Amino acid sequence: MKGKVLFFWKLVVITCFIVRCSDSSDNQLIEEITCIVTDKGRLEEIVIFPSDNPLNQNISQDPVDSRSNAIISLIGDPSVKPDFGSGLWEGHSIGIPFILVCNSQSRIPIIFRGNGYDGNYGNESDPGPYPIPLTAPVEGNGAGDSHVIAVDVDNRILYELYNASAGNGVWEASCGVIWDLKINDTRPQGWTSADAAGLPILPVLVRYEEIVKGIIDHAIRFTLSKSKVMRGYTSPANHLVSGTNINTEAPTPMGMRLRLKSGYDISDFSETNQIILNAMKNYGLILADIGSDFYITGTPDERWNNDDLNQLKNVKATDFEVVQMGDIIKN
């Protein structure tokens, strides 16, 4: 609000309890300190990657890819679907949750494994332990991708797990990545991350605290169905997926950036949705995984107005253009 200075107290809840960690050879009980920062606004007070990081680059003036029309034709005209909101859907929160921790949070062992949902990508993961409390929320309550995300706000380190579950004093996951938010951290070429494209997840999620701040200044994560994704990736993505699009005139790699056309009139949308749509014009959407067509991803928050967010469905894929891509790596 203009003309007013607001002061906030940082509220930190620290809970100490005893757990049995499975990596202890003598079954010795050890103390775990849980240090959760409950004010999610703290995340917006830190810099999430340097300003020259590709995910933070304003691409509103970048050239349109010469294959844009063909790519949009292949995608079709699905509506933008916000895959986040308030309340519950099928018993779990809507969106990908995250927590903030402080530097005294205990580090929890990580066991990389496959299961019936997906395989073991431990050889492309960062070894644990991670400072993620065993009580951290799991996306979908353990159904689907089951991402778990935590940020150490004191040290500006992001921790992300994929296909994760907690039990017996450890986290189990198919993949885990540690991102240093102070530098332009990337995965080795060809390596996955907690997301299919080899990208970080939290930095490209729509977060309600950004609405409070009044601006989203990064690309927004989105998905397409398998038939509309090719087997390849382009920078800043680092990993390909088993998409089935083989149309060489309309390549759709992981990392592809779409931009809402500058002439698209957003004046009839709410202030909240205008912030989201302006981000789509200035920073664009980035293809990060196979999923439902044109779903954009954000974090759950009880302050979201789901009816208002649903107005974004008036925006179609045909209202976008593809930003010029660099080399596409196919193997």
Keyword list:
331 residues; mainly beta; 2 domains; six-stranded mixed beta sheet; 24% strand
Topology diagram in text:
Elements: E1 12-20, E2 29-37, H1 68-75, E3 81-83, E4 88-89, E5 92-93, E6 99-101, E7 110-112, E8 148-152, E9 157-162, E10 165-167, E11 170-173, E12 175-180, H2 208-213, E13 220-224, E14 233-234, E15 257-260, H3 271-282, E16 285-290, E17 295-297, H4 306-309, E18 320-322, E19 328-329
Parallel strand pairs: 3-17, 6-8, 7-11, 13-16
Antiparallel strand pairs: 1-2, 2-6, 4-5, 8-9, 9-12, 10-11, 13-17, 14-19, 15-16, 15-18
N- and C-termini, Cα separation: 50 Å
Return the string of H and E elements: EEHEEEEEEEEEEHEEEHEEHEE
Mean pLDDT: 92
Percent in helix = under 10%
Beta-strand portion reads 15-25%
| Tally of separate helices | 4
Low-confidence segments: 1-29
* Major sheet: arrangement of strands: 1-2-6-8-9-12
How does this model look, in words?
The strands form 5 sheets. The chain has a 6-stranded mixed sheet with strand order 1-2-6-8-9-12, with no helix packed on it. Strands 3-17-13-16-15-18 form a 6-stranded mixed sheet. A 3-stranded mixed sheet has the order 7-11-10, with no helix packed on it. A hairpin with a 2-residue loop joins strand 10 (165-167) and strand 11. Helices cover 9% and strands 24% of the residues. The protein is globular. Residues 1-29 have low confidence and may be disordered. It has helices spanning 68-75, 208-213, 271-282, 306-309; strands at 12-20, 29-37, 81-83, 88-89, 92-93, 99-101, 110-112, 148-152, 157-162, 165-167, 170-173, 175-180, 220-224, 233-234, 257-260, 285-290, 295-297, 320-322, 328-329. It has 2 domains: 11-43 and 97-190, no CATH class; 46-94 and 201-331, no CATH class. The protein is built from 4 helices and 19 strands. By secondary structure, it is mostly beta strands.
